[in-house]
Amino acid sequence: MTDHNHQFWSRLDDINSGMLGVTQDSRLVPMSHYTDRKVGVLWFITAKDTDLARSVASGPQDAMHVVSDGGQGLYARIHGTLSLSDNRAKLDELWNAVASSWFEDGKQDPDVQLLRLDLTEAEVWATGGSMAFLYQIAKSKITGDKPDMGDHYSLTF
After folding, report:
1. Residue ranges per domain, the chain?
2. CATH class for domain 4-156?
3. Which of 41, 47, 74, 127 pairs as cysteine with 150 (C-beta 3.0–4.6 A)?
4. Is 48 helix (H, G, I), strand (E, B) or coil?
5. DSSP label at 107?
6. What pTM does this model have?
């Protein structure tokens, strides 16, 4: 039997980005996420003047992060509460070359803003990845059976 929680986090760890937005606004934007499975949180580094940061400046908002990665075989719609964070230790931990490309003064740049998405639930489709997909399609053509596309499940955090 598949441990769905482990499968979800393991595959999400290997995916670099998705589309993030607050639920009250249908606009999703591409964002790199950083997983913290121990506490059920996704972290994001953005700029204070972005629409996304401004949308949670007055307080936490319901939000959604959507990931799609055929190579890792994970497709997920992840819901949670998005808020601003001033956790400098977490920013130090997450800071990397990609993040530094966006901020002239590095992590000391006054425009750097850390976002925290506390997960509440996720709907997940986990497949065997792109090679398994091709195999299942070919197998279905030979056997006449429907292809096995993997697991579909929901998680509550």
Report:
1. 4-156
2. mainly beta
3. 127
4. coil
5. G
6. 0.88
